[in-house]
Amino acid sequence: MLEDIRKILFHESTILSRLDELAHEITTDYRGKDLTVIAILNGSFIFVADLLRRIPLPLQVDCLGVSSYHGTKSTGVVNFRQTTVAQLKDRHVLILDDILDSGHTLHAIKERLATEGALSLRTCVLLRKQVQRAREVDGDYVAFDIPNEFVVGYGLDYNENYRNLPFVGVLTDEAIARGGK
Ligand code: IMP
Ligand code: MG
Fold first, then answer.
1. Per-residue pLDDT, 69
2. Is 173 a catalytic site residue?
3. Residues 6+ positions from 85 with CB-CB distance below 8 Å
4. 103 lines ligand 1 (CB under 6 A)
5. pTM higher than the cut 0.85
6. How many Cα atoms within 13 Å fall on the side-chain side of residue 124?
7. Contact, 57 vs 27, CB < 8 A?
8. Which one, out of 38, 43, 100, 119, has a CA that is 20 to 30 A from the CA of 158?
9. Residue 57 in 3-state DSSP?
10. Which of 10, 74, 109 to mutate to test ligand 1, by most ligand atoms within 8 A of the CB atom?
11. Atom in ligand 1 nearest the alpha carbon of residue 156
12. 180 or 31: which leads in pLDDT
């Protein structure tokens, strides 16, 4: 698996120090508020586990399974794997996702959750790609901005592989051509 990585963008230690800062910011902003975190699966599972353990506040967690990517391209069509979410009425909601790219995914999720009666709805992403977004959505909390490159690891996949890499890296052209298998 490691031979498929052309370069590492963020080592695990770099990610975790940045999550310390982000968690501190979130803790300050949500102290005294009823907070529900919505984790967008599958990509955010490692990010969520590391970030939430750094937030010493009472909070609730629910997961929402969505998919929109095939290979290295966003399809623009966001599929929800479930129809119900946690009770969000009168709660402050923070959506956690792995990466903000075209914006289709976060836009669709925000639209889906907007009618649930939450007091506030914000987004937090590990990575934000520097691209022209198809949808107007920015990310209220962002760990890292990255150039427009396809990345894997720390939860992010290429055709469902590489999620378990402890760092965020870029694949070799050979691995991409192979389909990531
Ligand atoms: P968007 O809908 O284009 O903003 O893309 C968001 C989703 O696409 C993310 O939650 C990821 O699952 C996936 N994605 C976008 N860029 C990458 C990438 O560079 N590597 C792996 N997955 C990505
Ligand atoms: Mg994903």
1. 65
2. no
3. 38, 62, 64, 112, 113, 116
4. yes
5. yes
6. 21
7. yes
8. 38
9. coil
10. 74
11. 21
12. 31
